[in-house]
Amino acid sequence: MEYTIKPLLLGKFKGSKGQMTYFVDYEKEIWIPMVAWYIKGGDKHVLVDTGLSSPAIQRYLFGRPYEEIASFEEALNALGLTPGDIDIVIQTHLHYDHCGNTTKCTRAKVIVQEEEIKFAYSAHALFAGSYNLEYLKDLRFRVVAGDREILDGIRVLHLPGHSPGTQAVAVDTKQGTVAISGFCCVKDNMYPPEKMRVKWPVIAPGVSVNSLQAFDSALRLKSSADIVIPQHAIEFAEMAEIPS
Is the pTM above the cut of 0.85? Predict the structure, then answer.
């Protein structure tokens, strides 16, 4: 089975690049996209994450600039779908900005790592603000532990560090394995500037429960895919289809 991935860009906000890149570029401001990813090609309607739409996202931005592109419903309608058509949602993790629309997918099985759902319901005080349990109510969770095949040609890879149960989603395409990172990052995380590569072949996410694990997970992901889609890279979020 060969798939393509269609980014559903809901909006974007201005934030510090250092939120994505560990100890690097905190002074640089970038656009950070809110994205759901539709996997096209099989007989099931599959989303990776559902993003968070306006006005809900505004409560987390503390006045930072935000540009709305489309509501969740509008983004799906452009594909001829509604939230009720979605069969499977693969949650890379359960931070509010990745699962804010999942309850709208009332038929969907929601794939989540066991370690992630445990942490979401008993998060350490440092990370409690990253989770909103209202977004998890009445979801039809299918809990997995570790790497798993979800459908023919679609796999999850457990990559802890950013959160305990972060998982990447690896998809078979005409250009090989394309993986949605799962952890929050931009292109520099996977492909650091040349001057940094001698010591850091990858850059860990800027926000992690365990930075050492996060670094190792990024390194594992880079070696596991032909193309990595960094979860918050605006240049990937604005593409029509991946691979193009």
Answer: yes
